[in-house]
Write a structure and sequence with these properties.
It is a single chain. By secondary structure, the chain is mostly helical. The chain has one domain (about 5-135). The protein contains 5 helices and no strands. The protein has helices at about 5-20, 30-45, 55-70, 75-85, 95-135. The radius of gyration is 18 Å and the shape is elongated. Pfam families: TMEM220 (PF15071). Keywords: Membrane, Transmembrane, Transmembrane helix. This is Transmembrane family 220, helix. It comes from Cyclobacterium lianum.
Length: about 140
């Protein structure tokens, strides 16, 4: 795995830990704290070069399906509201739903990347093993 991916997953792990911490005061932390901790742990394992492709694929689809339930009604007005208020306080229910949607979407992308890179790593390792077996014969 390249240093760029290692740094990317390290940054993602730290960010997801921060997201989990910030969700403690959320109206529904029992859902969001574990969700972000799952993403942090997965990114942390990826940082250390440990991948579980099957679990990453399951988490990718689970988070994408969950994101569908939080599909935002009007993304552009939400972005405008966020720029106007200049802080992270929640002023409307729509802002909360949009933030939850994008949080799930970002986590799903990170899960998908861990699955892709983990699969690529596994294929390269299998290819090296088969090359070694061929050279021994």
């Amino acid at each position: 795995m390249s240093k760029v991916w290692k740094r990317f997953f390290g940054i993602c792990a730290v960010l997801f830990l921060l997201f989990a911490y910030w969700q403690i005061n959320d109206p529904d932390p029992e859902f969001w704290v574990p969700a972000y901790l799952l993403a942090a742990v997965t990114a942390g394992f990826a940082f250390f070069g440990r991948f579980n492709v099957n679990i990453s694929v399951i988490f990718t689809f689970t988070f994408l399906i969950a994101a569908i339930f939080f599909w935002p009604e009007n993304i552009f007005s939400w972005v405008g509201q966020e720029w106007e208020q200049k802080n992270l306080s929640m002023k409307t229910q729509g802002m909360e739903i949009n933030r939850e949607f994008f949080g799930l979407l970002v986590a799903a992308v990170v899960f998908a990347l861990t699955a892709i890179i983990g699969r690529r790593k596994r294929l390269l390792e299998n290819q090296k093993k088969s090359n070694v077996k061929r050279s021994d014969q």
